[in-house]
Amino acid sequence: LPPEDAARVKAILKDSRYETSIPGAAAANKDLRRLQGLTWLNDELVNFVGVMINRRSDEADKTGERGEGERRLRKAFVFNTNFFTWYGDNGFAKVKRWTRRFDTFEKDIIIIPINHNNSHWCCAAINLKLKRFEYYDSFGRPMPFVYERLRNWLTEEHRNRKKSEIDLSDWIDYWYEDVPQQQNVSDCGVFTCMFMESLSREVDFFDFSQKNMP
Amino acid sequence: MSADENQTDKKPETQHISLKASLSSRGQPQQIQGAGFPDLVIKVKKTTKLSKMMNAYCQRAGKSLNEVRFMYEGERLQPDQTVESLDIDDLEEDDEVIIDVASEAVGGSL
């Protein structure tokens, strides 16, 4: 960071009453302080990144400026961090209206940050262009129930929005062998945010690792 | 909409709505049976700021505002919003609107 930015970051972290917000997300000093050292990230921070990605994607839809190459912005939508659990616990009715502002099937990718047992962040995605259910975990292995839940949701979403059945027989469950791994027991939140950011662009491999983490 | 219905639509300027704040996931260990997260119904005017409901809920639950998230249909609610700003279709006097409550979530490793 350039020195003037570093000074500003320091001032913000010191000001205990600091709050920042964009429509749909907010983060206060106590949330931002989690970005220091090895503190675990909380939902406010992950959702802040999600809302920023959604706003950027909407803006690109309007202007048509998506950039080039692997920085090119996909038509992306990021769900909030409760989506995966609430759908699992309560069924489709709970999340039925969460996509009311757009057509799910016009998007390139739906990005789903997941919190497991209030201890671990990871990131799933439904890649509508490549017909893939994707799952990225900086600390783990592919979990069958994640893919299954994504499949079920997409089936129900299609039934609700398009009034017909979607054929998912040629959709694959995708796991990337060389997914960047955290080398400690605290950084999965940062890795998850990086997965979200990369997935919102046309990146087909992840060019970051623990070495890039502060 | 007929002229008659328009007439009756004029009347309810002091429309009241019940907000039911309710925990939406009971899966997380610290939330078993909604421990510490009771349901709360609060009756408010459509123009009342949501901060009133949020503060009442936090008082009832014994939590501070920054430990609890309030959401409606997947969107995070801010204290200075009102029921009106939620754009709910066909709201009638005394309807009950479900507000989803979530606790702070953190993660670092498995």
From TrEMBL, chain A:
The answer, when asked if Protease is one of the entry's keywords, is yes
Keywords, ordered alphabetically: Hydrolase, Protease, Thiol protease
BP terms from Gene Ontology: protein desumoylation; proteolysis
Protein name in the entry: Ubiquitin-like protease family profile domain-containing protein
UniProt family annotation: Belongs to the peptidase C48 family.
Q: Which domain of life is it from?
A: Eukaryota
Q: Residues in domain Ubiquitin-like protease family profile? A: 25-199
Identify the InterPro entries for this entry. Papain-like_cys_pep_sf (IPR038765), Peptidase_C48_C (IPR003653)
Species assigned in the record: Rhodotorula diobovata
User: Could you tell me which Gene3D superfamilies the record lists for this protein?
Assistant: Adenoviral Proteinase, Chain A (3.40.395.10)
From TrEMBL, chain B:
**Stored Pfam families:** Rad60-SLD
List the PANTHER family.
SMALL UBIQUITIN-RELATED MODIFIER (PTHR10562)
Comp. bias (Polar residues): 15-33
Cite the PROSITE patterns for this sequence: UBIQUITIN_2
Looking at the record's lineage, which domain of life comes first? Eukaryota
Q: State the coiled-coil residue ranges.
A: none
> Region Disordered: which residues?
1-33
* Protein name as annotated: Ubiquitin-2 like Rad60 SUMO-like-domain-containing protein
The record's section on SUPFAM superfamilies has: Ubiquitin-like
InterPro entries per the UniProt record, alphabetical: Rad60/SUMO-like_dom, Ubiquitin-like_dom, Ubiquitin-like_domsf
Pinpoint the Ubiquitin-like domain residues. 42-90
